[in-house]
Structures are given as structure tokens and as C-alpha cells.
Design goal:
Structural class: mainly beta
Helix content: under 10%
Number of domains: 1
Number of helices: 1
Distance between the termini: 23 Å
Radius of gyration: 19 Å
CATH topology: Factor Xa Inhibitor
Strand order of the largest sheet: 2-1-7-8-9-6-3
CATH architecture: Irregular
Shape: globular
Length: about 140
């Protein structure tokens, strides 16, 4: 039977571009985050000999899906400022997502392009920002240490 787990405590860290070894800075005050996922293209290989009027497919290339996360945005936080400044950079950067909550969990390591940083300042609410990134290349998944 699957074990239910409590999600609070996940950490997302951004590479500082130094090293080796590269150091990472934790992106603080994350509210919600999507974990890396992927979609595989389908190549239609249906022909006139395909049985039972059914389409046939081969797996094509696999593409990492966009990820989004929301933070309680602090415009004076240096890491938040660093994340915001990377929108439009013509370079990938490294990220690590660690969802280790207790003795188990998973770490995802990947390169990404920052696609969007949308800040929000409601009249009667918390400053937030929704951040969208696109993983590039392989996403490595390992048990959290």
C-alpha cells in the first residue's frame, strides 16, 4: 500500500554558476510547486495494413513539460531578485528540487530556462510571484540523501 506523505518542506535551489563544484542558493518562501514531468511525442505509423481500423504509433522524442511555482515574493530578497533577473537570459541554469520530508523523498536535478516571472501585489494580500521554467535536457531523479 502506498504511503501518504506531507508535502511541506520541499526545497528548490538555483545554481550560482560557480565552481566546480557548483553551489546552490535556496529559493525561499515557495508556496506551491509542480515537479518535473515529461511528454513523449507520438509518431503515427498507421498504414493500410493496420489491423482493426486502429492507429499505430511509435514513441518519438520526449520533452520536459514546463514547471511553475509560486513564492511569497520579497522584492528585497537577493535570491528572488536573481531568479527574476534570469528571465530572457540566453543560457540554461541548474536547479535542484528536493522533496525530502522525512527519511524518504526524491531529488530532481536539471538545467532550465526561466520563461516567466509574474509578480502580484493585491490590495489586501501577500506579495506573490508565479514563476515558469522549462527544463532542458535530462532530468535526473535520485532518492533524497
Amino acid at each position: 500500500m502506498a504511503t501518504k506523505t506531507f508535502a511541506q518542506g520541499a526545497k528548490l535551489s538555483i545554481g550560482n554558476g560557480d565552481g566546480p563544484p557548483e553551489t546552490f542558493s535556496k529559493i525561499g518562501n515557495i508556496q506551491d510547486i509542480t515537479t518535473p514531468s515529461a511528454t513523449t511525442d507520438l509518431i503515427d505509423v498507421t498504414d493500410h495494413d493496420s489491423a482493426d481500423r486502429r492507429k499505430e504509433y511509435l514513441a518519438g522524442l520526449t520533452d520536459s513539460d514546463e514547471m511553475t511555482f509560486t513564492i511569497n515574493w520579497d522584492p528585497e530578497d537577493t535570491v528572488h531578485d536573481d531568479v527574476e533577473s534570469r528571465v530572457g537570459e540566453n543560457a540554461n541554469f541548474k536547479l535542484e528540487l528536493n522533496n525530502k520530508i522525512s527519511s524518504s523523498g526524491t531529488t530532481y536535478a536539471f538545467n532550465a530556462v526561466l520563461r516567466k516571472f509574474v509578480g502580484r501585489a493585491p490590495i489586501n494580500g501577500q506579495h506573490t510571484a508565479e514563476i515558469t521554467l522549462k527544463p532542458s535536457g535530462t532530468v535526473t531523479k535520485t532518492p533524497a540523501a
